[in-house]
Amino acid sequence: MFHDRKEAAILLAEQLNPYQGQHPLVLAIPRGAVPMAKIIADTLKGDMDVVLVRKLRAPDNPEFAIGSIDETGWTYLAEYAHQVVSNPAYIEQEKTSQLEVMHERRNSYTPIRPPLDPQGRIVIIVDDGLATGSTMIAALHAVRAKHPQKLICAVPVAPPDTLAKVTPYADEIVCLEAPELFYSVGQFYQSFPQVSDEEVITLLSKNDK
Length: 209
What we know:
The chain is of the alpha/beta class. Helix content is about 35%, strand content about 20%. The protein starts with a helix and ends with a helix. The model has no long low-confidence stretch (mean pLDDT about 95). One of its GO terms (molecular function) is glycosyltransferase activity.
């Protein structure tokens, strides 16, 4: 159990300490991981930015991911997706909807600059925890296409089967806890408030100065 995202980020930064001095690029999956990525980037003396990916939501349960999509439109579908979704048109509609959200977020999060370039850099992708792993897989795929030197997935908590699914997409996995009994990421935090778009924008604007 972590007290909050700040504590989880400090503990992750300790595990990632070998990369201090190598100017890593720490990418957060918005929105929850953005405050964490800021702490980790500051500790490691690296740069912080966001990698925009979105989960594709199940029709009757928007909290349940049937897959994910990145800014380019590349899509990952979980092996159970077509069991959950009987209408293929739903998936196309959901992809379009999530691409629009990412477009709006990119315009508001980093309106005056392009995303930081991962090419040739040690890149650490951070989330506040993994459930199905879908969004992390999309994030790793999106960054891999930009040719980083090394690609690391860093999370406080994830179930073992999800870590096994994500592992092929990363060069290294840093995960503090991998409990077998896993219902949601939030169950492993004493305090787990929503992170607002305004907080994300503030952190990114501070980072740009």
